[in-house]
Specification:
Blueprint: H1 41-51, E1 67-71, E2 83-87, H2 88-97, E3 100-101, E4 104-105, H3 106-118, H4 123-130, H5 134-141
Helix pairs in contact: 4-5
């Protein structure tokens, strides 16, 4: 049996590497996978972490502990001005005062439970709608406590 080499395959352009690859350099808005403002919670937070200049001190208490990106308005939008660098204690304290349990408010958990109880909706649809993982939706519906919700 004769071995097939990659160069002998009919769609060899799919295997091009580096600058020869048609997708080379297509990041952010140029990528066909770009979702813009429709991206989920984690994708937008990653984008903000990569694009917002990191400071050395917490923007609230001025300490030098480990810093996290914190959303100011509570809306998941792609706007660097709507995020700040906070130390973990300030971030948790701020989220708890806003009624957040992790990244999900008690109000949103109530909405999710209500929509699911009415029927005609799948957990994965709720996950897409709220920018959460399906496993997080499951924990909310089963009223299981987690440090992530």
């Amino acid at each position: 049996m004769e071995k097939i080499k990659i160069n002998d395959l009919p769609n060899q352009s799919l295997f091009q590497k580096g600058k020869k690859n048609p997708m080379y350099g297509k990041v952010d808005e140029l990528s066909p996978s770009w979702k813009g403002d429709d991206a989920g919670y984690q994708a937008i937070h990653l984008w903000v972490r990569n694009n917002k200049p990191k400071v050395t001190h917490c923007e609230k208490c001025n300490c030098t502990k480990k810093l996290e990106i914190s959303n100011i308005s509570g809306k998941n939008k792609r706007d660097i001005k709507d995020y700040e660098w906070l130390c973990i204690p300030c971030h948790r304290n701020k989220d708890n005062k806003k009624g957040f349990i992790g990244k999900v408010t008690k109000k949103i958990m109530g909405e999710i439970r209500s929509k699911y109880k009415k029927g005609n909706v799948f957990q994965r649809d709720l996950a897409d709608q709220y920018g959460l993982n399906q496993s997080t939706i499951s924990r909310i519906l089963n009223k299981k406590r987690s440090r992530y919700i």
